[in-house]
Amino acid sequence: MWYCSKCSAAGRQPHRRVWVVWFFLALGCLTGVVLPSSAAAAEKLTVYSGRAERLIKPVLDAFTAKTGIPIDLLSSGTTELLNRLKAEGDRSPADLLITNDAGSLELARTAGLLRPIDVEDVNRVIPAPFRAPDNSWIGLSGRFWIIVCNTTMVQPGQVTSLFDLADPHWKGKIAIPSASSEYLQAGISVLRAGVGDERTKQFLIGLRDNAGTQVYQKSSQIVEAVAKGQVAMGIVNHYYVYRHLAAQPSAPLAIVMPDQQEGGVGAIMNVAGVAVLKHTPHFEQAIQLIKFLVGETGQKMFADLDKEYPLNPTVKADSALIDRQSFRPAAIPLTKLAELREPTLQLIEQVGLR
Asked: CA dist 46 to 69, 282, 353, Å?
């Protein structure tokens, strides 16, 4: 039994603090348990991610390998994550939020969930159009909404615009995302901003009628249906096509980058992005992660593994992709996607898309 000498000499009971210290020291010796240091615990980051785990985890693992900072990754739907963050408030364990959609990041910003950052290394490599006005979210990689065609069923030049897919000629021959798709909601929002509600509504009606039952929850399923000739065309983000071709090079697939004609709205662009939660106690480590994601290593992984367009202009896209300088994107600012979303959802429901 261990005693404080001063207390023993005075005939008093040993200090409670001394008992506690020796108890834990003895426990460590007997069991081999090493108590974690507060510094090590403070370094761990928790990331809420709306991206598929297989697409983001390799990049996060590379960050951990480089810095030694471990990451707890929670993957779920972006809407579910936003609702969770609102419910958790300042008690949330999340340090960062990653999503597939700038509109969702902007919704998080307007809900007061995010902490603006001002880091020169980030500002220098990610152009301003791909960041929130106050830098509370940062774009990481770009994707374009494209038309994927079966080359045995669609002739070159036969389709040049998304609006062509509403032509009754293609009835029963196209596949589309479900109404719950963030990609669909963002794409329709851009169309509304570019051509107005009435023309967009007529487009959606034609899309609904031509797709019929060919409505899919996953974009990879749309590409598969086109590749098998179940439908002639589909609407997906570009990288789903390139990933399919990387696995099956002989698949009869081609991409149309739509609406490049004079007066066309341009190719609809969205970005995956990252944000720091305002309550995080690990701000410095969170900034380290963001610097890694926008730096050469992170951007190259997005380009090579995910077939997305790097937003850091010093990093080249995969050579298989259409040259980014050869087509024109839509002019609608990414920051408008949030305010456009609710009216878009109402229009989608009014038309009756599934």
From this structure: 11, 10, 36
Q: How far apart are CA 131 and CA 201, in angstroms?
A: 30
Supply the CATH number for residue 292's domain.
Answer: 3.40.190.10
Please report whether residue 335 resides in a domain: no
Q: How far apart are CA 328 and CA 348, in angstroms?
A: 26
Phi-psi region of 130 (alpha: psi -120 to 50; beta: other; left: phi over 0): alpha
- The reply to whether 155 and 89 lie within a common domain is no
Number of domains composing the chain = 2
Global pTM exceeds 0.90: no
- Interval 281-324: pLDDT, tens: 999 999 999 999 999 999 999 999 999 999 999 999 999 999 99
Q: Read off φ and ψ for residue 137, nearest 5 degrees.
A: -140, 150
**Do residue 68 and residue 133 come from a single domain?**
yes
> String of b and e for 289-311 (b: at least 16 CB within 10 Å)?
bbebbbbeebbbbbbeebbbbbb
Return d(Cα 144, Cα 279) in angstroms, integer: 33
Distance CA 171, CA 165 (A): 9
**For the segment 324-337, what is each residue's pLDDT rounded down to a tens digit?**
999 999 999 999 99
Q: Which domain holds residue 109?
A: 43-142+271-325
Instruction: Collapse the DSSP code of 325 into the 3-class scheme (helix H, G, I; strand E, B; otherwise coil) and give the result.
Output: helix
Q: Is residue 102's pLDDT more than 80?
A: yes
40 vs 228, higher pLDDT? 228
Question: Do the domain assignments include residue 277?
Answer: yes
Is 153 domain-assigned? yes
Residue 73 tokens read as 């990754």
